[in-house]
Design brief:
By secondary structure, this protein is an alpha/beta fold. It has one domain: Flavodoxin domain (Rossmann fold, 3-Layer(aba) Sandwich), CATH 3.40.50.360. 43% of the residues lie in helices and 21% in strands. The chain has five helices and six strands. Strands 1, 2, 3, 4, 5 and 6 form a six-stranded parallel β-sheet that branches. Helix 1 crosses helix 5. The termini are close together. Bound molecules: flavin mononucleotide. Flavin mononucleotide binds next to helix 1 and strand 4. This is Flavodoxin domain-containing protein. Keywords: Flavoprotein, FMN.
Amino acid sequence: MHLAIFSGSVFGTADEVADMAAERCRAAGLQVTRLKPVTVDALLAADADALLACCSTTGMGELPASIQDFYYELQSRFPLLTEKPFGVIALGDSGYGDTFCQGGEQLRELLLEVQARELLPMLRLDASETVTPEEDAKPWLDEFVAALKG
Ligand SMILES: Cc1cc2nc3c(=O)[nH]c(=O)nc-3n(C[C@H](O)[C@H](O)[C@H](O)COP(=O)(O)O)c2cc1C
């Protein structure tokens, strides 16, 4: 099982969660390609069996600049990722109200549009509630790995 992991981050937290996820998934026996930075070409070239995205939210519910080019290119090239299992770990802050985790949500919706298959409901990590997102992501990640292996 080959997993491609990518991230979109402003201040580095989502990148760190993705780095931790890469280490943890490798330790669990998966082959992992950590795409940093991510491009559509690199994602397609990796030809992974499954995808994991870690993405924060900025502005008024916007995607971080580090993943915007990827997002718009995926949207315009629209390579079908039919039935490819994916998961999204979204980082946000519920203090922003309606735009809570909107960046992760946008990415998730686009992956569904290109026909990928969401393996687990998106994890939302709330900066108002936790200062240890990497730790908090671990139980979800373990479930994700179990679902991939199952
Ligand atoms: C200027 C700014 C705008 C933000 N806007 C949102 C938002 O609209 N929705 C949300 O859920 N979180 C928002 N956040 C919170 C970040 O997504 C959250 O702190 C996240 O953990 C940052 O992760 P990063 O270090 O990977 O960028 C915002 C943070 C900042 C500084």
